Amino acid sequence: MSEPSTPLRLRAEAAAAELPPLLVAAERVASMVSQGVHGRRRVGQGETFWQFRRYQPGDSSQRIDWRQSAKSVPVYVRETEWEAAQSVWLWRDTSPSMHFTGGRDRPEKAERADLLLLALASLLVRGGEHVALLGSGLPPSGGRGAMNRLAALVEDRSASTPSLPPVEPLPRYARVVMFSDFLSPPEDIRRAVEGLAGRGLRGHLVQVMDPIEEALPFDGRVHFQGLEQEGDIIIGRVEAIRPEYQALLAAHREALKEMTRAVGWTFAVHRTDQPPQAALLALFVTMSMSARA
Amino acid sequence: MLSLGALSFAAPWALAALATLPVIWWLLRLTPPAPQRVLFPPIRLLLNLASRQESTVKSPLWLLILRLVLAGLVILAAAHPLFNAATALRGGGPLVLFIDDGWAAGREWASRETTIGSLLDQAERQDRQVLFVTTAPLASEAGDAARPVGPMSPAEARLQLRGLQPKPWPGDHATAVARLQEAFQLADLSTAQVAWLSDGLDDGTAQATADALGRVGSVTLYSDAPTAVAHVLRPPVADGAALRISVTRASGEGIENGAVLAYGEDGTVLGRQGATFAAGERTAQARFLLPAEVRNRLTRLQIENEETAAAVVLIDERWRRRPVGLVSAQGTLAEQPLLGDLFYLERALAPFTEIRKGSVDTLLERQLAVIVLADPGVLADAERKRMETWIAKGGMAVRFAGPRLAQDVDGLLPVRLRPGDRILEGALAWGRPATLAAIDETSPLHGIRSTGNIRFRRQVLAEPSIDLAAKTWARLSDGTPLVTAERRGEGWLILVHTTANTEWSDLALSGVFVEMLRKFVNLSQGIGGTEGSVPLPPMQSLDGFGRIGAPPAAALPVIANELERTPVGPRHPPGYYGEQEARRALNLSQGLADPQLLPPLDSTVTAESYGTAHETDARPWLLLAALILAVVDLIASLGLRRLLYVSRPAVLALLLLPFAAPDAPAQSQAQTGDAFAMMASLTTRLAYVLTGDSQVDDVSQQGLRGLGVIVNRRTAAEMGEPVGISPERDELSFFPLIYWPMTDGQQKLSAVAADRINAYMRNGGTVLFDTRDGDGGEHSDVLRRVGEDLDLPPLVALPEDHVLGRAYYLLRDFPGRYTGGPVWVERTGERINDGVSSVIVGSSDWAAAWAMNDAQQPLFAVVPGGERQREFAYRVGINMIMYTLTGNYKADQVHLPAIINRLGE
Fold this sequence. Notes:
The complex is a heterodimer.
Chain A: H1 7-17, E1 38-43, E2 49-54, H2 66-71, E3 76-84, E4 87-92, H3 109-126, E5 130-133, H4 143-155, E6 175-180, H5 186-197, E7 202-209, H6 211-215, E8 222-225, E9 232-235, H7 238-263, E10 266-271, H8 276-292
Parallel strand pairs in A: 4-5, 4-6, 6-7, 7-10
Antiparallel strand pairs in A: 1-3, 2-3, 8-9
Helix pairs in contact in A: 1-3, 3-4, 3-8, 5-7
Chain B: E1 2-4, E2 7-9, H1 21-30, E3 36-39, H2 43-48, H3 61-78, E4 81-83, E5 95-99, H4 109-126, E6 130-134, E7 149-152, H5 154-162, H6 173-186, E8 192-197, H7 206-216, E9 217-223, E10 232-233, E11 237-239, E12 242-248, E13 256-264, E14 269-277, E15 283-288, H8 292-297, E16 298-303, E17 312-314, E18 323-328, H9 342-349, E19 354-357, H10 360-364, E20 370-374, H11 381-392, E21 396-400, H12 403-407, E22 417-423, E23 458-462, H13 468-471, E24 472-475, E25 481-488, E26 491-496, H14 511-523, E27 535-536, E28 538-542, E29 548-549, E30 558-559, E31 575-578, E32 583-586, E33 606-609, E34 616-617, H15 619-640, H16 648-660, H17 663-682, E35 687-689, H18 694-714, E36 723-725, E37 737-741, H19 751-762, E38 766-770, H20 780-789, E39 795-797, E40 824-826, E41 839-842, H21 846-850, H22 867-886, H23 896-904
Parallel strand pairs in B: 5-6, 5-8, 8-9, 9-33, 18-19, 18-20, 20-21, 21-26, 35-36, 35-37, 37-38, 38-41
Antiparallel strand pairs in B: 1-2, 2-4, 4-34, 6-7, 10-12, 11-12, 12-15, 13-14, 13-16, 16-17, 22-23, 24-25, 25-26, 27-30, 28-29, 28-31, 31-32, 39-40, 40-41
Helix pairs in contact in B: 1-3, 3-15, 4-5, 6-7
């Protein structure tokens, strides 16, 4: 794979550089295949030195530490501490409704979502965690190579995903972070979230929205059109329905918040006119706190 | 047509559409403006809201008004409003235009064109046929008369009348009316509306014409104000040294100030003389007193600010030049000019006359005013006869005495002479040299102030006779005649009793001599003699506006001795006839009767003057306003729908663009000018003229570069890269030598380029012309064509000892790619440029011989061939460069053997 040194990737790295490497505390020390790099205080696969022990028949001769063995008569084998990494599954919405911006000075929602996703991935990888893109079919991996792969997947705009993540058989105790505008009916969102939460996964929803989607700053007669064939509507006096709309939006968010709280997930809102660092920091804090809990 | 004061509508029924405006108002109010379209992701939320907010929206009031005004403008434009519309044509039947396009129409021709245009407009609106006839005769095979044209549509008439111009000859009303009536009967028309566009002058048939036109239809007569009627400038009459000019006008009313301008050959104004018509007078006089030198340059007189053929008088030799013929026994190129017979005469006469020299026979073949015989010896009988007839017809012969006359007296003398001459001063004479006596008042020479210091040493003496005193115009102090004259027929025979040079007296050295000759010439009648019945072909003709130009095709030659009586017409337009050397002017005004104003005609004729109020069509302006409003409406609609994004910088840029744009090229040009000068002058460079043929240009470039390589290698000169230049564009003064290959595609040089090259050659530059054809002569024509535009010095084939052959190498011939072609240079000593020829011309295609590629290998084979020829070609180039760079110092070496010889002694 070639080195994807794209502007998006660079910006994501820059946004992530301002936060310390995210260390998601491992909750479970269970013998899971993919876990975060956390010392398990026992012998296993890992990088860190744990102990020397005498060579026993059956040990691979490749594992003999020849330097240590040369100091004395017995032959020693070098053992390392077992390290395991937490795996985090990331997902962002690339449906047409995300390709929208209300002003020339603001990025599209999809672009901001990509940026947040990559920045978070960068933080996680630097913290030694394994990340994967939900729906991509690739297993979680860590290191710079994983970053490169992830960036390539994110920037591949050819594939348009549905507005909600697919329910996949994910390993238990993994983390899920989802970036979307979450404008689908709350029932659909609940179905998706509960499908994941029911497998014991912990997750965070980040709603990315454009300011005009909140403010509805139009006057007079406006012909509104949806981006995903939801239909269209002509509103005679937009200013008259603005409070009602805003109340409706608030209710929608409240419903989402309630639903996530019920399954132990979190819900945050990010507006594209705010800097991405704010959202990243909030996410960082949430993930660390929920890790500690 | 509907009229409201100055405003009228050509299509008033269209105004009915104004009634629809309220309907449009109602419709516009009903139709709401299109909504703003917005893409909105959270539309699901909006869909959940009830759509009860949908309500009728009305267009803003200002937009409604804007659109109503737009609609109103379009309707008004459809009604075709006109300001100051001309009144409609009355009656029925076709419109007949009876147009005076004789000479007098030229003065106010524009007003006639306007009137014709507006009459045709009306005819077009009323859908009338048009028939027109012009009164000035036209040259045609079926007799010289204009024919009626039509009936036809107004549009076609407009097309045909577009080319109508006034004619420089008088019109013929009677014929035109007769032709019109014929045509009318032929076309089987009963009645018509006649518009007579008169020139305001009566040729005596005005009433008859009006009556005849009245039989065709109702007549409207258009005429000028009396002050705008054309004047007639009569040919001038010589009044001594002055020209007397008279101008006549048609009306005798009021005082009128005018002026007559005198023009030279090139259009310069030589003089201006006011001419004022006193009240009641119909003739104004002007008197031009011009110095003889100026008068000789006079070609044309014209009334100021009046452009008709009769306001212009062309001047020919009858008024202008006084050709003087000089006859002498000696050739004009005497060994000692100061002793020649003609030297003093020539010097004295040249400023105010045209001098011709030759024998009596050759001189009398052309027109002459004065013939001066400076002691040519005895005239042959035939010559004397011819002289006598010439003098009888008005010629003036001035004879000077001299040794030959003193020996052999012939009959052609005003007085009888004693044989031999009288010596007043000398070794054997007692007397003192005589001086000039005061001149009698009766003498034509009176006014010449005699100075006492002219000494007459020898003279011829007249036999005393009764009429000697009367024939004597000037005497010496002892009473003997110095100038005698006799009237013979129309002309004069004058004898000056001393020589025209300093042999016998000091007369030729004094101012008296000049003044005397001037008086003689002024006394002469101008051109004497007749030309006989030679046909003079038309040379240049005046048009209806008094402008001179090529003669029309129908113009025929004029018989020389009938010129004065030739009537001006389409066959003989006014202008010059004959040849450039001896042209005769046929003036319109010489045969014109005094102009008369049109008399008041009977009451059936409606009188109109040529309109001053012009009809203005408001339709295009209304449509333009509607278009602008439509654009405003479009912008407003787009703005209402938020579809219009205009960023401020873009608007600013658009506004500033026209101001910023022109500066840029000018600056860059100035920079390139400076850059070019720096480039060309910081190193010595050879230049070649870009011919436009890229192949030739490449060869020139490679050739000069190759030569530069060789020069740098062998000599102290450091040559830079050669430069391709265009004399049209580039400054040339930086280059010592310009190589100019001739190509078939050589364009004619522009005046700028020719000036630039001439200045370059004059100021020390050298141009190397190469016809590149190896003496094949293919491009010699090109070179000749180029040379015509340039101020080239006389050229000679390269002399054997020319500096070009020894400037660096000793060269005998000058091969290039070809050998044997001659080389031409400026004649040595012709110019001062250090003896360096400004032109070198050859055909050897030197550049091809010099051309080398980057590896310094020659590019073209030399003909016939051999390294020796190429070597010599380079030597030729080096010599040329050394020659142009160092000048002629090598020429001194020509004298080296002599110097060494002298040192040896």
